[in-house]
Amino acid sequence: MSSNEPVALRLIDREFLIACAPEEREGLLEAAGYLDRKMRELRAHAKAPSFERLAVLTAISVAHEFINLRKQHDGQSQRLSDGLASLRSKLNAAFESDTAKS
Length: 102
Description:
Layout: E1 5-11, E2 14-20, H1 25-45, H2 51-101
Antiparallel strand pairs: 1-2
Helix pairs in contact: 1-2
């Protein structure tokens, strides 16, 4: 079992120490980098928002992106399932036809 270690993350001009398992460190740093970029994008288009307001706006924006991606993924998964079911039906029909001829 690995122990949690503190990782320093910078968001805008603030530093946060977050404890995480060593194997999660890279993903946490990547997520923090993404969040920092999104916060900077929003700050560039807003009129001097507070850090807290900027964090909430960014959280809503990222959640919206996530939900849209999940919907796309679910739609693609459904199309794949439908396609596989159709292929399975065709294969079953072909096997039944082949068996009936034998």
